[in-house]
Amino acid sequence: MEEIKVGLLGFGTIGAGVVKLLKENSALLTEKTGTRISLKTIVDLDITTDRGVCTEGITLSRNADDVLTDPEISVVIELIGGYEPARSFALKAIGNGKHVVTANKALLAVHGEEIYAAAKKNNVEVLFEAAVGGGIPVLSAIKGNMAGNRFSTVLGIVNGTCNYILTRMTQEGADFAEVLKSAQELGYAEADPTFDIEGVDTAHKLCLLLSLCFGTKIDLKDVYSEGITSITSEDVDFAHTFGYRIKLLAIGKMDGGQIEARVHPTMIPIDYPLADVHGVFNAIRLTGDFVGPVMFYGRGAGMEATASAVVGDVVDLARNLCAGITRRCSPLGFLDDKVTTLPIKPIGEIVNKYYIRFQALDRPGVLARIAGALGARGISIASMLQSARSADEVPIVITTHDAREEDVRKALAEIDTFEVIRSKSTYIRIEDNLE
Amino acid sequence: MEEIKVGLLGFGTIGAGVVKLLKENSALLTEKTGTRISLKTIVDLDITTDRGVCTEGITLSRNADDVLTDPEISVVIELIGGYEPARSFALKAIGNGKHVVTANKALLAVHGEEIYAAAKKNNVEVLFEAAVGGGIPVLSAIKGNMAGNRFSTVLGIVNGTCNYILTRMTQEGADFAEVLKSAQELGYAEADPTFDIEGVDTAHKLCLLLSLCFGTKIDLKDVYSEGITSITSEDVDFAHTFGYRIKLLAIGKMDGGQIEARVHPTMIPIDYPLADVHGVFNAIRLTGDFVGPVMFYGRGAGMEATASAVVGDVVDLARNLCAGITRRCSPLGFLDDKVTTLPIKPIGEIVNKYYIRFQALDRPGVLARIAGALGARGISIASMLQSARSADEVPIVITTHDAREEDVRKALAEIDTFEVIRSKSTYIRIEDNLE
């Protein structure tokens, strides 16, 4: 095949990166695929702003149909983001027999089933390496060379904004609100950062990781999701005292046929490689029954890193097209009819160690009452720390041995009714028992 | 395709892992490939020893031809290791139209060109993910999703034995010889550890990484290689004082059309993720022009992890065979006729920072003479440390700014003639300027 024509929907930051890569490394791509990968048309509502990349020889259009109905275009790169019109465009591209490459985790986490089914029906491919971990080629590895493994655990630091904020809170002892403000000024957080800081973006990515690791459909609604907005600099300090760092983790585990699917701030030991993932970097750590623990680390976002993953998918497609085949591997790595729907373990039933922070009046017997309420629910204390008194109110911090989430919640609800407790008690799950 | 029949040459540790994986995860492999991957025949000189894995239904033979000439077998897994008879067997398999999966870095580093040419001629594939980094799927990622990048640097901790020894030297302050002895007793080092501790195994793996990153043939003879036998516990201590850890690194760099290809003990900053790769774990860090820095981390050796990579290659082949194609991607990721022979930069011309340790008599003017000899070669000192005197002889340790290797060698040759210098001065290269 002499040439493969590509259409691009969405000329934002990543789109500009893709244009740049396809232009600058065009010869390299030919050396690796044997074909010319040529970007024919870019569609965006704004086709006048200069993105700082050369678009010579590329048609710029405001009309998606200029890509979606162009019979010359065999590969559509969707970088619009969000649910609509991304969903309609992807389905139309598929319906017209075009392969789709997308970085859109929101789209796939919510409408993946519909899109994969349409792709199967139309015998085209849907590739989405860039949807998780930016440039890190983790999805390809799960579907590809690690395919022989049954995975037991996947942990991911997959949201650069949250990791940037937590890193600065850790390094500077700063508070969440002030770091968020600064991150927004520096462009590391959106003007409306809700999707990032509330863990929604991380939950989207977890859905994709779970589908690939376990060959299961995941309903985003079933993913427990908690953001980083309630993390205080005090928690960061106490974490350090206990030998932990706080990271927003996507956590997926296979537990006796049930799947744990949860996103929340997590304390991990300082000497775990994941604890050293700083700033906007991402990392994904998987455990397979044969490969054991494997970690992938790299830039989780940004114009160029994400473009690397997008173009990597285009290379994959180009090699298939040159070989005259399609769907050599299905979107989730499992044959479509082998994808099941595994049950999700309710969050109340998960078992973790916990860090719990109480804000209490400094009165005799407070500790005994807290310990008693925890003990009555079978929650056993591993360590305890009461800060030097600076006022009448003191933070009391404990870590627990393994406890059931539901029991912890009930115990805290009871403890919070004590008149000596001055504000709602908070807790952070601890993950320190990885193989 | 209903079934793909596989033959295994070499029933050692990794071979047993492959048998175990193909047996235990057989159903999973079918769910991911749509075909049954069935191990028909195992060949080994020893077919009586119990390897602790079930071989029911598999033919065991001492005759390689039972695999190499069996028309039913389409995939041959070569796990004999070493040059011969592995080379002859691989070539015969290829000549008979069989695809080859191998973990044999020595074979490919030395005879790769011959084997790739034979594979091209016979239209079969040669896959070797397990040859570098055990279970870590780094080669697939370079050839696959990261294919759009021009790489500038590849750094690897790819020899578990060396990393285990250096880790224990660091953690225990122990000497090389005593840790090596203990490593041998524990099975982490071979009875004859030469290939590992002299850096030869690491150089083999570097050859493969360079070929895939840069699309070039590499002659093993051109790879500068230096092992860890001369590292002392004193060096480990001084490294710590300067904020470094010592790792045996495979280093590949693209430098203006020339390639740096070298293996040597290297000081890296303690806060680099690579510095946290402990024990028998491996890690490979690459920098691509778009993806930026990416690191892969996992088990670099062992029965099960390596089997994961071997079977991953078999899955790749199975997907091709089911699609009715072959050589969708050539062995090095670049089309065969695009693989070039880039020049290797002579070791004398590389530029590094250096750690240098002198053993000198404690006399006035020694430092001035050392500094003078270095300065005369344009080598500028970044930091200096003279230990508290415990005898008439003292170690003097310096780190330099960027200097040319040849200049450092000449300066040390001169300094070593000074009568106050009591033994050969040693140096370790520093790598602390990574993007």
UniProtKB/TrEMBL annotation, chains A, B:
Query: What is the protein name for this chain?
Result: Homoserine dehydrogenase
Domain of life the protein comes from: Bacteria
PROSITE patterns xrefs: ACT (PS51671), HOMOSER_DHGENASE (PS01042)
Q: Which UniProt keywords apply?
A: Amino-acid biosynthesis, Methionine biosynthesis, NADP, Oxidoreductase, Threonine biosynthesis
Q: Does the keyword Amino-acid biosynthesis apply?
A: yes
Q: Which reaction does it catalyse?
A: L-homoserine + NADP(+) = L-aspartate 4-semialdehyde + NADPH + H(+)
A Pfam match is Homoserine_dh
Task: Name all ACT domain ranges.
Answer: 355-433
Q: Which family does it belong to?
A: Belongs to the homoserine dehydrogenase family.
Q: Which organism is it from?
A: Geomonas anaerohicana
InterPro entries under this entry? ACT-like_dom_sf, ACT_dom, Asp/hSer_DH_NAD-bd, HDH, HDH_cat, HDH_CS, NAD(P)-bd_dom_sf
Pathway per its UniProt entry is: Amino-acid biosynthesis; L-methionine biosynthesis via de novo pathway; L-homoserine from L-aspartate: step 3/3; Amino-acid biosynthesis; L-threonine biosynthesis; L-threonine from L-aspartate: step 3/5
Q: Known CDD domains for this protein? A: ACT_HSDH-Hom
User: Which EC class is the enzyme in?
Assistant: oxidoreductase
Q: What is its EC number?
A: 1.1.1.3
